[in-house]
Amino acid sequence: MNGDSNSSLRLLLAVQLSQHFRSGIISPILALFIRRQGMTVTQIGLLGTASMLGWLIFEPLSGVVADRVRKKYMVIFAIVASSVIYFLYPLASNVWHFAALAFTMSSVMAPYAISVKALAAELIPPSSRGSTYGRYMSAVSVGGILGPVLGGYLSGAVSYSVPFYIAAGVGVVGLAGVLLMRYDDRSDEVMAVKENHAGGRLWTKAFLTILLIRMLYLFNLVFRSNFLPVYLNESPAIGASEAEIGLYLGVLQVMSALSQPFLGGVTDRLGSRAVIASSLGLAGLSYVGLTLVRGIFPLYLLGVAQGVFFAAADLSMMVHLMGVMHEGRTGMVMGLYSESENVGGMIASPSLGLIYDGFGPSQSVLSVAAVLFLNAALSAILLKRPSEPG
Fold first, then answer.
1. CA of 269: how far to CAs of 87, 128, 190, 262, in Å?
2. Using N-to-C axis directions, what is the helix angle for 296-324 and 129-141, rounded to 10°?
3. Is the pLDDT of residue 55 over 90?
4. Residue partners of 71: CB distance under 8 A and separation at least 6
5. Measured at the alpha carbon of residue 129, what is the angle toward residues 120 and 140, in degrees to the nearest 5?
6. What's phi and psi for 204, nearest 5 deg?
7. Suppose 252 and one of 152, 161, 186, 307 were both cysteines; which one would form an S-S bond, judging by CB atoms 3.0 to 4.6 Å apart?
8. Which pLDDT belongs to residue 1?
9. What is residue 289's three-state secondary structure?
């Protein structure tokens, strides 16, 4: 079984790599593409809400289903369906089209997100979990390095439609990795392990706390995906082009890929609580720094630091979750973890859009910083080590 697990983890890595590339190639231009169709930033925020609604509804359902069916079937469905949606994006022309596409995309990607997280949790060995997960996510991040740079360049040099078509085509490549996986999460051996853990409590204080921390962290993720490209493009002090925004996002991905193996080892040594609290505080400081940036080169330097801070927060939260989760119900655990993200996104997306239009771009950036500072304080106070009771 170990041989099947190791080879399946490598194939899962290849699938994740291709999916990070396709999402990366869209990341610098999606908000700008919508903006160029005449949408306000508030409307972009509402489109983010439509996307979060799909996650909100279907991720918990996917978590339940993932504990009952083969997860790779759910991954296959998501890849095929999302490829069709990427192909349809250039045909959209009004806010209702974009809302329907955003909702549908998140709805079909919910089974993918839950399944790959649950498979990773099952395939990664408990010993040196931080180091192993750090190396795994470092390799996955490689898929997102070239994507933003290529997407930003192609949208400016050729057409905004081309990155969407590439994303649709690349998605199908990931199917090969899924089909070759030999790990069977419904095998007698795996089901016996799950049965041994079936009596544990799901709703522990430690589990609820990490859900709260992850929910608040979505203010950062929502701002980066929905508003940051617009802010960088329209800010008089920065005025970044599509290609420059793509390069900035590429810098984030490079630093994430380079730092995650090291961060995994640090998490194993210091504990996930210390890494979560410190990375959230530093991420908040980086957003304060964003309001002070003047010009493109300082933005790239800030991106170097942000890539490390964001990677540390994401990695340490997932490692902490693996340490406190109910091991017999990985699908349900990942579904609830993702649902905490959805609730945070549903709050953050319209709030940040209204702040951006009503009070100004800088106030929206500082609002994200304030939430990250609050989250850092809560992490330091409320999070317990996985071995501690609660």
1. 45, 10, 29, 11
2. 140
3. no
4. 115, 116, 118, 119, 185, 331
5. 45
6. -90, 165
7. 307
8. 45
9. helix
**What six digits make up the tokens of 108?**
């079909």
- Can you give the C-alpha Rg of the chain in angstroms? 20
pLDDT at 48: 81
CA terminus-to-terminus distance, the chain: 33
Residue appearing with tokens 């609580």: 273
Residue bearing tokens 């209204």: 354
Domains assigned to the chain: 2-382 (1.20.1250.20)
Question: Position of tokens 């949208």?
Answer: 155
Given the structure tokens 């617009």, which residue do they identify? 230
CB 232 within 8 A of CB 299: yes
Q: Give the predicted TM-score (pTM) of the model.
A: 0.73
pLDDT of residue 390: 45
Contact 155, 163 (CB under 8 A): yes
Query: Residue 363 CB: number of other CB atoms within 10 A?
Result: 13
- As a residue count, the chain comes to 390
DSSP per-residue string spanning 164-209: HHHHHHHHHHHHHHHHH----TTSHHHHHHHHHTTTS-SS-HHHHH
Task: Please say if the pLDDT value at position 235 is more than 80.
Answer: yes
Query: What is the reported pLDDT for 327?
Result: 66
| CA–CA distance, 339 with 322 (Å, rounded to integer) | 16
Task: Count how many Cα atoms sit within 13 Å of the Cα of residue 43 in the half-sphere of its side chain.
Answer: 15
Q: Which amino acid is at 344?
A: G
pLDDT band at 386 (very low <50, low <70, confident <90, very high): low
Tokens of 204: 């522990």
State what percent of residues in the chain have pLDDT above 90.
Answer: 36
pLDDT at 372: 98
